[in-house]
Amino acid sequence: MSEGKTFWGHLEVFRWLLIRCIVLVFGIAVAAFCYKDFVFEQLILAPCNADFITYRLLGKIGLVANVQQIDLININLASQLMTHLSISFYLALVVAFPYLIVELWFFVKPALYSNERKPAVVAILAFFFQFFLGMALAYYLIFPLTFNFLGTYQVSARVVNQISLSSYIGTFLGLMFMMGLVFEMPIVAYFFARIGVLKSSLLRRGRKVAVVLILVAAAFITPSTDVFTMCIVALPLWLLYEFSIEVTRRTEPKEISDLNDQ
Predict the structure, then answer these.
(1) Chain segment 21-45, per-residue pLDDT in tens
(2) What pairs with residue 184 in β-bridges?
(3) How are beta strands 72-73 and 163-164 bridged, if at all?
(4) Which of these, 11, 15, 144, 197, could form a disulfide with 54 (CB 3.0-4.6 Å)?
(5) How buried is residue 82: exposed, middle or buried, by Cβ count under 10 Å (0-12/13-18/19+)?
(6) What is the pTM for the complete model shown?
(7) CB 55: neighbour CB atoms within 10 A?
């Protein structure tokens, strides 16, 4: 959005913004499609390998043992091609996402007051950092532990696990996206505290309940009897909750914050 432009002028600017974004996403998707071996062997399917970095690091300190190589199967004729296409598109969106937001920022920036621009930039940067931090945690910790347990769990030796490609990809993308959203908790807390809906005292009173829910969530994410593994997953979530309390305390009006500290 630019100052001094008519409605049709803004529409023309937005049209070219969409064109640039679509071209970039399409270009990255084509590149990802062409580099299939790197995308799948080094990124998407890496947690299937027994020598994945997470298994090696946790194995050195004795938290994970007997990690097995898990092979996937395909049971649908077009599943591998469709998976290849969809992963290329999703990867392109992730890679291009910062650029897309920058394009959108320059479009709406002229419509913001000068005192609104700095908080908006900080919020956007915080959103990026938290979302990608959550995705990194899911990729390097939560998904490998979940996949290793569920992929080797058997109710009977006569029942052999054969993990389908679609099941693997669905779980992989679901956990990555879910953890990215979960890590937006401090951002959500900031905005709710900003409008006066959320107070740090409420989060403090609910700390015990939150800890129980976090442990339940960690047990669900890593459904094993290994307490250490569950704690590894639960610790970042608990720290995230404590960070949200601090963000809320610093955001709410000073007189409320001082009253809560008493």
Answers:
(1) 999 999 999 999 999 999 999 999 9
(2) none
(3) parallel
(4) 144
(5) middle
(6) 0.81
(7) 20
